[in-house]
Amino acid sequence: MSADRINLLRTKVFDKSKWMQLPRDVVIGHDVIEQIPAVCEDLALGDSVLIILGDRTRDVAGRRVETLLSGSFDVATFTAGGNDPLDTIKEAEEAAAKVGFVIGVGGGRVIDTAKIASYNTDRHFISVPTAASHDGIASSRASVPTAEGNVSLAAEPPIAVVADTAIIASAPHRLLASGCADIMANCTAVLDWELSHRLRGEPLSEYALTLSRMTAEILFNNTDLIKPHSEESAWIVTKALVSSGVAMSIAGSSRPGSGGEHKFAHALERLAPGKGLHGEKCGIGAIITMYLHGGDWEGIRDSLKKIGAPTTPAEIGIDDETAVAALLAARTIRPERFTILDMGLTEESAQDLVKMLYRE
Fold first, then answer.
1. Percent of the residues in the chain that have a pLDDT greater than 70, as a whole number
2. Which of 179, 214, 303, 318 is deepest in the core (most CB within 10 A)?
3. Residue 252 DSSP one-character state
4. How far apart are the C-alpha atoms of 85 and 23, rounded to whole Å?
């Protein structure tokens, strides 16, 4: 008698699914801003576009993008200025709802505004960075400043990135160094992710983790090439920033590039608003968290110094007492995200960690 008709056990089916959104077109190089019309036509996003730009980036690249597209598209512009970021985002959303797609031309605040506006209006978004200051140029997260500090939000990842190295290299070197520091901090972010996986059972993506770690190592291995106003430097750092953003899209969160060092940076933003750039604070935090992980913290410090990034609170105008307070407050930032700074740091230990930053 055949047992084919007797189904005692259900056949197990692998039903795990994941939705990842990654850039379709990534164009990096000298004068590639001229290729924006071709990118827009290739993506077939519509015949009307909103260009979101900043007061400074209008002259740097915004007007050029508008001129390049005006012959083939119905172009509108929006300046991401004003004092209230939430009001700016709301106004940008109203403008984005009237067009087929959005282009963000500028630095961090402009790109983040474009990301959120496109996400909330279900529009595609093209990222045109004018500086390589942080990994937000290609990620699916956006940072919004509020009275309580910066808030990280889910947002629209770019469907394309057009990064002109001539424009990026002409930006102040401090911005490029900040972008390097943000990427180098990936090496401690992934350690925190692995720690949370072991202690808390947090899901971990080996692909995203490996890509993030490899991206940081590429920068560590090429610190000698990171020099002011060099297109080669802009090329290396921009590729790394895009790679880091892709790692976050694969993971479905900012985990591959955001651990305790970012929680420390966000705490500093609350306690000392306006002091230092985001990547600079993450770099300082990475020195501290790598020390706590028992890794090569001196290697991070020396690499940051080599590229011209700060390694102490004093270098970004923050006193040591505030840095200590930020270390202790880090556990209150995104408490659901477990890191090595959530393991019971005492005030005395925090003071010693800040003193360690000044060792020769």
1. 91
2. 179
3. T
4. 26
